[in-house]
Amino acid sequence: MANMANRGSGAQDVGRRGARARRDGDGQTAASHYFQPPIRRARAPRLAAGLGAAPAVGIAVRGVEVTQVVQSLNNTVRLIADKPTVVRVYLDPQSFAGTTIVTAEITWRRGGGGAFYWPAMNRVRMNPANPLGIDEQRFDIDQSINFSLPNEAIAAGDIELRLNRVMVPGGPDIPLAPQPVIRLTFRPSPPLRIRVVGLRYRNRANTPVTVTPDAVHFNALKSYLLRAYPVSALEWSQIVIDGNARLTLPFDPPNRAATAVFVNAQLSALRGSEVFGMNLSGAETAHIDPRTHYYGLVDVDGKNGATVNFMRGQADYNEQTKEFQMVASGPCGVPKTNGWVLFSWDTDSSFADWYGAHELGHTFQRRHPGFPRYNPQTGTGQPHDPDETGFPYPDGLISTPDNIFVGFDIGDPDLGVPRRALPGNTYHDVMTYADNQWLSAHTYEGIHERLLLEDELFAPKVG
Ligand SMILES: [Zn+2]
What we know:
The protein is α+β, with helices and mostly antiparallel strands. It has two domains: about 60-185, Immunoglobulin-like; about 190-455. The chain has helices spanning about 135-140, 215-230, 260-275, 350-365, 440-455; strands at about 60-65, 70, 80, 85-90, 100-110, 115-120, 125, 145-150, 155-165, 175, 180-185, 190-200, 210, 235-240, 295-300, 315-320, 325-330, 405-410, 420, 430, 435-440. The strands form five sheets. Strands 3, 5, 6, 7, 9, 10 and 11 form a seven-stranded mixed sheet that branches. Strands 12, 13, 14, 15, 16 and 17 form a six-stranded mixed sheet that branches. A hairpin with a 5-residue loop joins β9 (about 155-165) and β10. α2 crosses α4. The longest helix has 18 residues, at about 260-275. The radius of gyration is 24 Å and the shape is globular. The site of zinc ion has 6 residues, from α4.
């Protein structure tokens, strides 16, 4: 059981389960091109007494953050066109005279066009007697004044955005000095092309005898990829097929190549046929876009409280070219039940989501940054891939220790996933083996670059 939840991208992979990132405090920070110094602004004078009584200086704005998946307070992480985008406004509670419920309005414009006024979707209580710090505001989606940008604003290209008004809902405006214009660029991204293949296998100990992934695992992965990857759309298809003869229990036998190697071989053959294939009579069988990545799901089969069959994940890797192929596979199942705990930090109904995002991250040439640190004595942790040279954050987190980066999950009502902020001091990059997984800016932008490259490189030949 100890190695049950391990997974990986190659023969070196060991030790995911139970490991947490350590806080060594080392790693790359200032050398990174992601590193940005915190904004330092003089705090504006407090309102003298009561609302509207202050002179034109008004309340202090700590920051305006435009976020999709992860963002810095200086908006240095690239924005993807047509991807749901939330503007978060942080006001300084100490610039209010008393406890005040506030909301706000922004304006945005594209090119030389006229300005559109856009309202916030919430209201926030500002309490100068017990003021929240900027980190506390950023770590809680309910502590910022939030705006969901309209489709016209997030189309590809440049816009200008400005905090226009802060007011008591239904009440007076609160004095606000003219705010700086924020210039944003929304960059196009190709769709994420994924074909997910559920693989059946036989488990004679349980009924039913045939094990097939539940629908929730397909949906959880699909939702997570759309929320967390640098895309606005998926080209998604899913099928269930019988696993080949090598997909038999027990999985991952010691001292042999992992079961996932054989699953990937089966998927590669399927992919070859569907993407490039001809049948024996020479007829064209190809019907899948050559830019499509294939991902295999193998269920842990925890039904009836019996044993859990955990197939450690793996991405297909060419050791000669040092390139990942566009095929990977991994386990799916419920993170924890009354019967077992695979991933205690994951409280929802599937771990196929972030697990699949890790393996698919490999297929976009993302590598192991090496967190938690590999311990050769216990075999726990993640060996650092020497070809991953640029991971900028200590301990595999999604931020430098100054909390300049904060993650953001737009959520998914269909799956009961809440919209929330993901603190950069507790969330780890999806390419690590650590808890609380999300995409750092490093991985996010790396996958976007690869998507753009593949979109050209592997485009279908015309004619
Ligand atoms: Zn891996």
